[in-house]
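Notebook, p. 212. Picked up where the previous page left off. The plan for this session was modest: take the two constructs that came back from the sequencing core last week, fold each one, and keep the raw output in the notebook itself so nobody has to go hunting through shared drives later. Recording the first one now, exactly as returned: residue sequence, then the structure token string.
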Amino acid sequence: MKIKYDVNEPYFFLANQFYKHKNHILVFEAVKLLREKGIFIKLVCSGKLEDYRNPDYIEQVKTYVIDNNLQNDIKMLGIIPREDQLCLMKNCLAVIQPSKFEGWSTVIEDAKTLQMPILASTFGVHKEQLEDKGLYFDEDSSQSLATLLEGYLNGSVKRPLPFDNYEQRVAKFARLFIDLYK
């Protein structure tokens, strides 16, 4: 995967469609803030490079990257095969999930199954999915994410405990589901 996608350094992974509410710009702003402090991180993004609700959004995203000279820091892969996405996720430093809203985050579920650390926005569904096992930032503050990323890299942010493995989570869900009908 490293050769296929030209990913040669440790990286954070953001696996969302490029829809405005998925909040990519906030993450890019955080990368810029860190760069201004002399902290250089790599961010690899996968997902459809268009937003049918906001047709100009992807151009705004690309322009932001170019205008802020972040082309070497941020890699936007577009849609990639599912197996590649999971492989990139499994080998990243941490998964970033910055969404402002969604019904349920499959990215978080994938990352949990792969036992990957997750930096997520404080949006309620993320807290429901991650509970005390996520690292959180304000979805409206790139500074909040930049601070979290810096702490994650320098070790000052305490890493959460691992997630239950997939089989344990399925068994727990089954027990809770059965208990509903008792």
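Okay, moving on. Second construct, recorded in the same format:
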Amino acid sequence: MALITSLSQLDPNGSYTYADYLTWQFDEFVELIKGKVLRPMAGASRRHQQLSKRLEYAIETHLRRSQCEMYHAPFDVRLTRSAEGSDTRIQTVVQPDIF
């Protein structure tokens, strides 16, 4: 497989997996939705950042007395319909603001 160092090297009509995604060596931020490469919209607005910060604080406060943990971007979240979600079968990977 050829080394992917630029988003332009990917076939826009191609279908990719998390295993493919892990090998890409470029700086652009992308997500996979059902195997398709998507570039998220432009940077988050100030209002979005304010709301995200408040939501993160509220969730963190709620979780303090539990064993649950919260993460924030960048953090790959792999979505699969199968319990046997190997990297070669996962076709949806996102990086939500808060997870």
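Notes on construct two before I forget. DSSP finds two helices and four strands in the chain.
Flagging for discussion at group meeting.
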